[in-house]
Amino acid sequence: MSDQPVILPSAGAGAGAQPSIVRNTYLLLSIVMAVAAVGAFIGLQMDLAWSIGMWLVFMVVFIGGPFAINAAKNGDTAIWLTFAWAGLVGFLLSPLIAAYLKLPGGPGIVFNALAGTAALFVGLSAYAIVSRRDFSFLGSFLVAGCIVVLLGIVALIFLQIPLLSLAISGLAVLLMSGFILYDTGRMIHDGAANPVYITVSLFGNIVVLFSHLLNLFSFFSGED
Fold first, then answer.
1. Under 8 Å CB-to-CB from 47, ≥6 apart: which residues?
2. C-beta of residue 175 within 8 angstroms of C-beta of residue 123
3. Distance CA 53, CA 66 (A)
4. HEC-encoded secondary structure of the chain
5. Tens digit of each residue's pLDDT (9 = 90 or more) over 62-85
6. Beta carbons of 132 and 184 less than 8 angstroms apart
């Protein structure tokens, strides 16, 4: 078994590798999303309660998973770790989804968040692929924005201000939209890009985008 970091055989390095990198990335991402959906379904059937403790466990898994995947030397191991991570993320996110579903008009909130996430991801990805622009210039702005959001979340824990929560979610949606452009551009322009690592990053963007769209749609529905 090869120890090279290239995960899928058809995704070789070089300028001609981009089409296969794009194909393999989106194929892997579709499987990862399906695994996450199964994990969320199982969690919903168990009717787990959302709490600060559950949120902390989710954050540890959500942030720690990519480090474990990046540390994997074997390509097949990285793929299986990605599937396991996605399923666990979906499972641990299910209590939050259940909490919104239990609100008056909850199914509509969840549906709108799902539809909004899908529309943003497809639209931004299509724009990046068709325009073939290099969005690497966004990197420093996105990192700075993430720091602002993290500081805002810490402040929100202590202040509990609804409008602050709304502002954080609005900024997070903009940031994740930027990250989708950034990662898609990296996938297109980096001939040696690893489909698994790009998939992990895009999946993380989608999860964060969805969770904050839930908050926004809940707020504007008057059910927050």
1. 98
2. no
3. 21
4. CCCCCCCCCCCCCCHHHHHHHHHHHHHHHHHHHHHHHHHHHHHHHHCCCCCHHHHHHHHHHHHHHHHHHHHCCCHHHHHHHHHHHHHHHHHHHHHHHHHHHCCCCHHHHHHHHHHHHHHHHHHHHHHHHHHCCCCHHHHHHHHHHHHHHHHHHHHHHHHCCHHHHHHHHHHHHHHHHHHHHHHHHHHHHCCCCCHHHHHHHHHHHHHHHHHHHHHHHHHHHCCC
5. 999 999 999 986 788 999 999 999
6. no
Q: Say which residues have a Cβ less than 8 Å from residue 162's Cβ, sequence separation at least 6.
A: 219, 224
Token pair in block for residue 99: 């909490």
In tens, the pLDDT along 188-206 reads 887 777 889 999 999 999 9
* pLDDT value for 91: 96
Task: Say how far apart CA 103 and CA 60 lie, in whole Å.
Answer: 27
C-beta separation of 54 from 60 below 8 A: no
